[in-house]
Amino acid sequence: MEKLPKIGLPILIAIIVLIILISKSAVTIGPGEGGVIFERLGEGINTEKTYGEGFHIVAPWNNMIVRKVRQQSVSDQMNVLSVNGLEVKVNGTIWYEPEYSNLGKLIKTKGEDYEHELLDPAINAAARSVVGRYTPEQLYSSKRDVIEQEILDEVTKLLDGQYLIVKRVLVEDVQLPPTIKGAIERKLKQEQESLEYEFRLVTADKEAQKQRIEAQGKADANRILSASLTDKILQDKGIEATIKLSESPNSKVIVIGSGDSGMPIILGNQ
């Protein structure tokens, strides 16, 4: 085996060292992620720049901290007190994302585990504040949307200026003590039955009123008609009917004498 030239060995060593340095310095930031540089020989986190997706080369004595910057969610269960002091369990989910341009400031001030440093205390404080304004019945039934918005408003205030954006709050479940839940469900059922009964009464009353109006209308019409039918009018109507009947091709008319009120008598109809 031939010996390497004296000049070739240093070059080979330099190439190997360069490859090692590149492998240590190459960083790939994935989709939905951002990165900030931690400068070991400088002032720590560089807050001036956030690195986007793709391939990056950093100095080997520095470190790239990569964090998700797209919208994320965290779920939690909290034990809180209602307005009358009853313990309520609230299951909720919150959607959030860090401010991309201020990712360095966020990590520098709150650390890499900023979710637990910021979100957990803010969510718990907001939930206790908001839930404490309502009764168990309101929490269980009709106030869910309002509570979600109020918690979102509270969390947004608490995190103002903290470089973390809260997008939405969802209250997935409210667990009440079994006795309270049963009482509320019975009350809601009774209220529903009462409303249904009142609806039937109103419907029946309207139907009766309609029938009274129709009957009154018929009675008025008959009274008017009776008042207008004099003997003369009845006689004229009878004559008209007799004439029409006598003109019928299917009838053979024989008039003999006269009937009551001077009306003709027609016989022999076929």
Automatic annotation (TrEMBL):
Protein name: Prohibitin family protein
Annotated ranges, domain Band: 24-188
Compartmental location: Membrane
Source lineage: Bacteria, Pseudomonadati, Bacteroidota, Flavobacteriia, Flavobacteriales
Transmembrane segments: 7-27
Alphabetized UniProt keyword annotations: Membrane, Transmembrane, Transmembrane helix
Pfam families to which the protein is assigned, alphabetical: Band_7 (PF01145)
Domain of life: Bacteria
InterPro entries attached to this UniProt entry: Band_7, Band_7/SPFH_dom_sf, Prohibitin
Keyword presence, Membrane: yes
Topology with respect to the bilayer: Single-pass membrane protein
Coiled-coil annotated residue ranges, if any: none
